[in-house]
Amino acid sequence: MKTAGKIALRAERRRDVPVIHQVVQAAFGRAAEADLVDALRRGGGLALSAVATIDGRVIGHVAFSPVTIGAGNGSTPGLALAPAAVDPEFQGRGIGSRLIGWALDECRRQGHRLVVVLGHPRLYHRFGFRDAESCGILSPFPVPPEVFMVLELVQGAMRGCAGEVRYRPELSR
Q1: Across all residues in the chain, what is the average pLDDT?
Q2: To bridge 19 with a disulfide, which of 54, 58, 78, 139 should be the other Cys (CB 3.0-4.6 Å)?
Q3: Sign of the dihedral through C-alpha 52, 7, 27, 92
Q4: Is residue 78 in some structural domain?
Q5: DSSP classification of residue 3
Q6: What's the CA gap between 173 and 90, in Å, rounded?
Q7: Greatest Cα-to-Cα distance within the chain, rounded to the nearest angstrom
Q8: What pLDDT is stored for residue 1 in this prediction?
Q9: 113 lies in some domain
Q10: Which residues of the chain carry a pLDDT beneath 70?
Q11: Could you tell me the CA-to-CA distances from 104 to 62, 69, 86, 101 in Å, in that order?
Q12: Vertex 168, ends 164 and 173: CA angle to 5°?
């Protein structure tokens, strides 16, 4: 299926906020994830909020928020990727994958070193995500181990990194 117009990938702008809410809500079929993005934004908890647009229309969104892995002086900073969404009208065209790939590169450019995600292994393995538990990184939520994954944005970033991920309060609810 061909997508009319040129796809652009960029950081969100203030005027995108209401449309991001609509896109995320439509993609998930409920308001919870859209409300989460709004709460993270209000609380200063978005390390990166990126959009995919076609002809200036926001059709996809991905958010990254800070996390800490482990406890105390031995803790390691990282990011959580959540949520990622594409308007249902544009799903199945590779737009989400392009947006996630661009956003991961942007996180790397900004100096971030690790990203964790709860998601579909088939999607996230293609970006290099792998089972976090086998790396000693634990989810604070009861989830199947195959859906909790980690990605090193910088080679060696997981060296000495272990323990439970501590999310921002907005994501822990």
Answers
A1: 95
A2: 58
A3: negative
A4: yes
A5: P
A6: 30
A7: 51
A8: 46
A9: yes
A10: 1-4, 173
A11: 10, 19, 16, 5
A12: 90
What the block records as the tokens of 153 is 């944005």
In a domain, 134, yes or no: yes
The token duo for 127 is 């970006």
Nearest to 54 by CA among 101, 109, 94, 110: 94
Locus of tokens 């996390």: 67
Q: How many whole angstroms separate alpha carbon 157 and alpha carbon 8?
A: 30
Domain extent for 99: 7-172
pLDDT, tens only, 14-55:
999 999 999 999 999 999 999 999 999 999 999 999 999 999
- Identify any residues that bridge with 118 across adjacent strands, giving them in sequence order: 148
Which residue has tokens 């450019």?
109
Decide: 140 and 172 in contact? Cβ < 8 Å.
yes
| H or E stretch covering 42 | helix 32-42
3-state secondary structure 92-130: CCCHHHHHHHHHHHHHHHCCCCEEEEECCHHHHHHHCCE
How many structural domains is the chain composed of? Answer: 1
pLDDT at residue 3, as a whole number:
55
User: Does any domain span residue 1?
Assistant: no
Tokens of 61: 């969104």
Specify the CATH number for the domain of residue 56. 3.40.630.30
